[in-house]
């Protein structure tokens, strides 16, 4: 399940990066529009896009760090308790097998 969550987070980050890129392109395309309100709006959008990029980068780093920490913790647990890990994996396999066979 954590792999599905990780993939969802990665997809979200990719979608947000694409949204930021699209907004930047929109700003470039409307650069010819003159006027105080248009200039002010473009500046606000640039500021927000800059903050969004920074937050996305931070989110990406935090997500990677958490995934690495979870992997490391799992690895330590499996090395400390190999038979428990085998039992848990076998039990989960049995449950998944039973659920799949019911379909």
The helix/strand order is HHH
Basic shape? elongated
Distance between the termini: 20 Å
Strand count, sense and closure of the main sheet?
none
Portion of residues within helices: over 70%
Gyration radius from CA atoms, angstroms: 23 Å
How many beta-strand segments?
Answer: 0
Mean pLDDT across all residues, rounded? 81
How many helical stretches?
A: 3
Q: Strand-residue fraction?
A: under 5%
Structural class designation: mainly alpha
Low-confidence runs (pLDDT<50, min 5 residues)? none
The tally of domains stands at: 1
Provide a descriptive summary of the structure in words:
The longest helix has 45 residues, at 36-80. Helices cover 91% and strands 0% of the residues. It has one domain. The chain is mostly helical and 103 residues long. The protein starts with a helix and ends with a helix.
């Amino acid at each position: 399940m954590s792999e599905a969550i990780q993939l969802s987070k990665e997809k979200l980050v990719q979608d947000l990066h694409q949204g930021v890129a699209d907004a930047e392109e929109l700003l470039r395309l409307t650069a010819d529009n003159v006027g105080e309100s248009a200039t002010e709006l473009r500046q606000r959008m640039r500021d927000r896009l800059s903050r969004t990029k920074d937050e996305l980068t931070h989110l990406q780093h935090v997500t990677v760090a958490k995934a690495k920490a979870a992997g490391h913790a799992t690895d330590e647990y499996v090395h400390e308790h190999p038979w428990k890990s085998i039992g848990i994996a076998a039990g989960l396999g049995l449950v998944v097998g039973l659920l799949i066979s019911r379909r």
